[in-house]
Amino acid sequence: MKKVKIYITLKQGVLDPQGKAVQDSLNTLGYSEVLNARVGKYMELTLDDSVDVEKQVEDMCAKLLANPVIEDYQYTVEEGIAQ
Amino acid sequence: MKKVKIYITLKQGVLDPQGKAVQDSLNTLGYSEVLNARVGKYMELTLDDSVDVEKQVEDMCAKLLANPVIEDYQYTVEEGIAQ
């Protein structure tokens, strides 16, 4: 089995109100050193060993997991996870 | 400036309906090799160089960013980001 970690972030230049809210909240709490915050999604998928994990994950991201118009995605594949 | 990447995940054993929905959707789309999916949050913070970034980030996670009852968090600090 393989474990895939997927990081989905908004593209640079896309407004991130959730990140702005996080930044404002942190500043209000006294963490004035926080200059910027961006919020994204993180997913962990467990995949059966299949023909081409990388191609499959690319497909999944483009079709369902990320919105390629406004989001970027990155992923890492870890081999041989015993679950 | 420092860039901090924070990964927040549900603790093992905590039900993840969002992850289940992602898994079911992927299976429905024909990706039957997806055995499990867990969804978490990903944040990127830009911090001014302050006294002790690690301690500050620990604090922020415990107080605002994560719910320590049901969530775990991890983070990495990247030095010297020119933004």
From TrEMBL, chains A, B:
Give its E.C. classification number: 6.3.5.3
Q: What are the subcellular locations of this protein?
A: Cytoplasm
| Keyword Flavoprotein listed | no
The kind of enzyme this is, by top-level EC class, is: ligase
Q: What is its main location?
A: cytoplasm
* Pathway recorded for this protein: Purine metabolism; IMP biosynthesis via de novo pathway; 5-amino-1-(5-phospho-D-ribosyl)imidazole from N(2)-formyl-N(1)-(5-phospho-D-ribosyl)glycinamide: step 1/2
* HAMAP family reported in the protein's UniProt record: PurS
Subunit: Part of the FGAM synthase complex composed of 1 PurL, 1 PurQ and 2 PurS subunits.
What NCBIfam families does its record include?
A: phosphoribosylformylglycinamidine synthase subunit PurS (TIGR00302), PRK05974.1 (NF004630)
What is this protein called in UniProt? Phosphoribosylformylglycinamidine synthase subunit PurS
